[in-house]
Structures are given as structure tokens and as C-alpha cells.
Design brief:
The protein has 322 residues and is of the alpha/beta class. 25% of the residues lie in helices and 20% in strands. The strands form four sheets. It has a five-stranded parallel beta sheet. A five-stranded parallel beta sheet has the order 6-13-7-8-9, covered by helices on one side. The chain has a three-stranded antiparallel beta sheet with strand order 10-11-12, with no helix packed on it. Helix 4 packs parallel to helix 5 and helix 4 runs parallel beside helix 8. The longest helix has 16 residues. The chain is globular.
Length: 322
């Protein structure tokens, strides 16, 4: 057995395995964000999923002197971490999730096989929640009326929505939600245009290709998956090549007509046929109308859309002080 980064994610890995507590292992998600990327910018080694790594004494979670009643809105990664930390502080926590499953952007339906590390992490968070006295209410939608409740603190982890583009002539019935592109279903012989070559767009294209579809990525600028760590970015580029996925960089969309998308690519006019199209050009924080209340602490994508490390660190650091 060879271990490196997994021992940063969970220093107790060996003892947990020895004692048969496999489910309690906090898994490394191979994101390189808290370890290698931080080293590259001359910061101490830490970990995206273990925010206390490298500073355990200062960032440890201790019992609060006063027990509070806390509501957490959103069962994604930030919401689950917030609920876990708040419960370990000794607070009475209720976690509200509008869907029938926890996980947010990393629900099992949205995790293709090449993102299995994230599935392990979500399973770990669910297991931790189950060990604690956290009341989980699924299929429950929360709005601004929660401000009328008697909760001492409200953790807003409601996440974000995908941005949209107004493409002239595009039939809205041909537009797919980006998350639909991650599902385990057949795309045989379907031509799917993905607008946006960020992480979401690239991963979606790979999943479509592996399910028999013919994805095409259109990127306005000259780089793909530019927010990814260079190691992960190169891996994605290799997978794109192996799956013969068409990529058009430096390409501007002009308009749509029927099943054709007309674009300007490197100053050359082109037309691309498609069955469906998906807009993957980023996220915008979801608003509940509670953000200005003194009782509300906003974390994760609800604060500003970024990566898993941002969601975990924000939720951990802010909730350990409640």
C-alpha cells in the first residue's frame, strides 16, 4: 500500500483501516487544490476536504459554551460540512434540503465514473451526519419566511444556479440543463453542443462521449478548464483527445436557426448542427432574500461560486466559531 495525499486528507487513515472503520475515512478527492496548488504559491500544505490540516491546534472544533438552535439551508457539500461542524460544537442542528437526496452538485446522478472520488467524499459526509444528532429534512423548500423562526443562527448554503445566454433564434426546448449531461444515460448518435469550456463543460462532454454521443465544445476564449490544477487540466485534455471530442476555441456564437448554430471561430464563419445544446458558462449565487440578516451566515456557492475547497473551508471556518 502506498499513501501520500490521502494521509493529509485523513491522518488517521491507517488506524481506521486497522480497526475496521473504513466508512470513517475522509477520502482524498485528488483535486490538488489544498496541497500542490498551495505549495506552488508558497503557502503551507493543507487539504481541500480537511481544512484543519497543517494547523490542527488553531482550527480544531471545540464544544461551545452555549447550545444554539441552528438551521442549515442546503444539503450540498457546504451545507453538510456546516451541519457536521455545528453539531460537533454541541448545537441543535436541522438541515433542510429541497431535493430528495443530499449531495447538491455531487448527487450520485451527477457523478460520472471519472469523478468517483467525489462520490466517496459525499458518502463520507452522509455517514458523518448519520453519526451526529443532526435532523435532516429532505424535500423541504425554505424561503425568506425562515427569518420568522426561532433559530439562533441560519446557515445559508443554498448553492447557485447556472447562468444563461440569450442566443438569438435558439429553441428553448432544445436546451438541456448542464447537470443532465452528467447523468448515466444513452446519448447514442446525438450531437450535443456545449457552450463553455470550463470544468463543467469539459466533464460533461466526456460523459456524453462515453455514453455514445457526439459532443462539441464551444469556448469563447483560448483555454479549457482554466481553473483546474495543471495536472488535472492536462488529464482532461488527454481524455478529450482520446474521445475525439471536437473543440472550438476563440469562438463567438452569432445565432441559431433550427438545428444549426452559427458562429465566428478565429474570424471564420462556421455552422454546427446539433440535437441539443447546453449552456455551461458559470454559476450565479442563488438568492433567498435572507442574506442581509445578522442571523444568517452564507457559505459555499451561495456566497460566491467556486470549487469544493472554497465550500468546505468556508463552512468549516465560519461554523466552528458559532
Amino acid at each position: 500500500v502506498s499513501l501520500g495525499r490521502p494521509l493529509i486528507a485523513d491522518p488517521e487513515w491507517c488506524s481506521k483501516v486497522k480497526n475496521g472503520h473504513i466508512q470513517e475515512i475522509r477520502p482524498c478527492i485528488a483535486c490538488h487544490e489544498g496541497c500542490l496548488r498551495r505549495l506552488k504559491t508558497y503557502k503551507r500544505v493543507s487539504c481541500a476536504v480537511n481544512p484543519a490540516a497543517g494547523d490542527e491546534d488553531y482550527l480544531k472544533v471545540e464544544k461551545s459554551d452555549k447550545t444554539k438552535k441552528i438551521a442549515v439551508i442546503g444539503g450540498g457539500v457546504a451545507g453538510m460540512v456546516a451541519a457536521i461542524v455545528s453539531s460537533k460544537r454541541g448545537h441543535l442542528v436541522t438541515l433542510f434540503e429541497k431535493d430528495e437526496e443530499l449531495g447538491g452538485n455531487f448527487k450520485k446522478n451527477y457523478l460520472p465514473h471519472f469523478k468517483s472520488d467525489y462520490k466517496h467524499y459525499v458518502d463520507y459526509l452522509k455517514y458523518e451526519l448519520g453519526k451526529l444528532n443532526v435532523k435532516v429534512q429532505l424535500k423541504t423548500t425554505i424561503d425568506f419566511t425562515i427569518l420568522q423562526s426561532d433559530y439562533d443562527s441560519i446557515i445559508n448554503a443554498c448553492g447557485a444556479n447556472f447562468k444563461t445566454l440569450n442566443i438569438k433564434g435558439l429553441d428553448k426546448h432544445r436546451v438541456l440543463n448542464p447537470f443532465a449531461l452528467y447523468e448515466d444515460k444513452s446519448y447514442k448518435n446525438q450531437e450535443v453542443i456545449i457552450v463553455g469550456g470550463g470544468l463543467v463543460g469539459v466533464e460533461a462532454a466526456l460523459n456524453i462521449a462515453e455514453h455514445g454521443g457526439r459532443p462539441i465544445i464551444i469556448e469563447k476564449f483560448g483555454d479549457l478548464a482554466k481553473t483546474a490544477h495543471p495536472v488535472n487540466k492536462r488529464h482532461l485534455e488527454i481524455l478529450l483527445e482520446q474521445n475525439s471530442i471536437k473543440v472550438y476555441k476563440n469562438t463567438e456564437i452569432l445565432y441559431a436557426e433550427g438545428n444549426k448554430l452559427f458562429c465566428l471561430s478565429d474570424n471564420v464563419h462556421i455552422s454546427l448542427s446539433f440535437d441539443t445544446i447546453s449552456i455551461c458558462v458559470g454559476l450565479t449565487s442563488r438568492k433567498l432574500g435572507i442574506e442581509d440578516s445578522e442571523r444568517v451566515i452564507t457559505v459555499g456557492d451561495a456566497d460566491h461560486p467556486e470549487n469544493v475547497m472554497n465550500a468546505v473551508w468556508q463552512a468549516y471556518r465560519r461554523c466552528r466559531l458559532i
